[in-house]
Amino acid sequence: MSTRSATHLLISCPDRPGIVAGVSRFLFEQGANIVEADQYATEPEGGTFYMRMAFRLEGGSPDDFERSFVADVAEPFGMEWRLAYPDEPRRVAVLVSREEHCLLDLLWRARRGDFDAQIVHVISNHPDHEADVAAFGVPYTHIPSGDGPSAAEDQMAAVLAGNVELVVLARYMRILSGGFLERVGVPFINIHHSFLPAFPGAEPYARAAERGVKIIGATAHYVTEELDEGPIVEQDVARVSHRHSTEELAAIGRDIERIVLARAVGWHLQDRVIVHENRTVVF
After folding, report:
1. How many CB atoms are located within 10 Å of the residue 63 CB?
2. Is 228 one of the catalytic residues?
C-alpha cells in the first residue's frame, strides 16, 4: 500500500525498553495520526531495533518538528533516523543497455501510477530504445561507452547530479566507479540474475542449462563500489528443469528480473528499506 500522503519516519538504534512508547507519545503530543507501524529487533535483548512509522500531521514547521524530535526522542535513545515528507513524486532516472524488458516495465508501472515517482530521464550506452522511451514522454540520452568510462561518467553525472533522487540500473551492463556514485550522490538500485557468482560473465543462462540447474532467479540490490556486493533489497526464484531450453530459461529469467526490480524500486520509494552495514531491513 502506498503511503506517500503520509510522513515516513525510519529509525535504527540500540534496543531497549520504551522506544515504541517514546516515539508514539511524541507523535501523539504533536497531534499526529499514525497510519502504519512496523518494527524489528535483531535480538530478544541487547540487539539493534528498527522501526518504520507512517503518520499524518497537519500544519506546523518541519524544522520545528525535527528539532523537537531530536531533543525529546532521538538523542535520549541514540537513534539514527530519517524523515521523508509527502511532496511531489520523486524524480527517478533509469540507466539501460541493450535489454529493454526491465526498462519498459518500469516506464509502464510509472505511467500507471504504481510508483510514487516520476521517471524523468533514461540514459543508455546504446541508441536502441529511444523511440520506445519517447512514446512514454521521457527524455532519452545516448551516452556511448566508446570514449572511455571516465568520459561517459562525466556526461552522465552532468545529467543526473542534483536532478534525481534515485537511479535504477535496468540491465545497464557497465561498471560504475565509486567516484561517479559519490558525485551523483543518490541511491542506485541494480538488478542481476542470481547465478552470480556461480555463473559470472557472458551467457549465464546457457551455462546454467549446461549444468542442469533446478532454480533460477534474480537479485535487486543497492550499488556500491564493490561490484554486486551492495545490500540486497529483494530476491525471487522459479523452479526449472531439464526440459527448459536456454531460450526458455532466459525468458523466465527476464520475467523474474523485472518483477524483482519493480518490487525493490517500489519499496525504496515508499521508504520501506533501512540499510544497516551491508544488510537491509525491509518493512
Report:
1. 8
2. yes
Residue-wise pLDDT for 24-79, tens only, equals: 999 999 999 999 999 999 988 889 999 999 999 888 889 999 999 999 999 999 99
Determine the residue type at 77: F
Q: What angle do CA 107, 55, 108 make, to 5 degrees?
A: 5
Q: Distance (Å, rounded) from C-alpha 104 to C-alpha 101? A: 5
Residues 6+ apart with CB under 8 A from 24: 34
Residue entry with cell 551455462: 207
One-letter amino acid of 21: A
Q: Are 43 and 15 in contact (CB under 8 A)?
A: yes
Catalytic residue (one of 228, 236, 255, 271): 228
Is residue 3 within 8 A of residue 35, CB to CB? The reply is yes
Q: What domains can you pick out in the chain, each with its CATH number? A: 7-84 (3.30.70.260), 90-282 (3.40.50.170)
Distance CA 53, CA 271 (A): 10
- Burial label for 45, CB within 10 Å (0-12, 13-18, 19+), is exposed
